[in-house]
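Tutorial handout. Part one gives the primary structure; part two gives the three-dimensional structure as tokens.
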Amino acid sequence: MARIVLFNKPFNVLCQFTDAGSNRPTLADFIAVKNIYAAGRLDRDSEGLVLLTDDGALQHRLTDPRHKLAKTYLVQVEGVPSVQALEQLQRGVFLNDGVTLPAHVELIADEPLLWPRIPPIRVRAAIPTCWLKITVHEGRNRQIRRMTAAVGFPTLRLIRLRIGDYTLGELRPGQWLDYLCAPNLR
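Part two.
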């Protein structure tokens, strides 16, 4: 049976177990399970759900673009996107590596209740921000950030909530849940 670990990756943590020659925080600073590997990545400046497994076939199914696994993110952007910008995100956005697949995009009316980010995002008194929920079916490098920037609304904070059927749930930053062991909720 495959071991699957769900981890809420904090901001500024590398999505790998080692960082040769540097002193940046990695997965090893949080997860004490041996012989598991991240199924996909989450940028250092992004937060939220990371899946880890000891099953190479499962890792491949979770990351192979041919499977078009849905990934859902909460995204705080600078400014308030117009209806046209939201429609463009939904239809697909032209990036330097091609047009993205259509995405599901929702404008969130109320700011979500989240843990504070340390350090906090930059705040500009004259420029409002808003939150979007975006679901994509591909996993290009920094895709969500590039998509929102392409339509004129840079991403300030990015939190992955879901990968396929796996969800972040109630895990706080730095906490992980091992499906073969009791949860580690430090």
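Part three, for discussion. The chain has two domains: 1-65+166-180, 70-163. Helices lie at 56-63, 83-91, 143-150.
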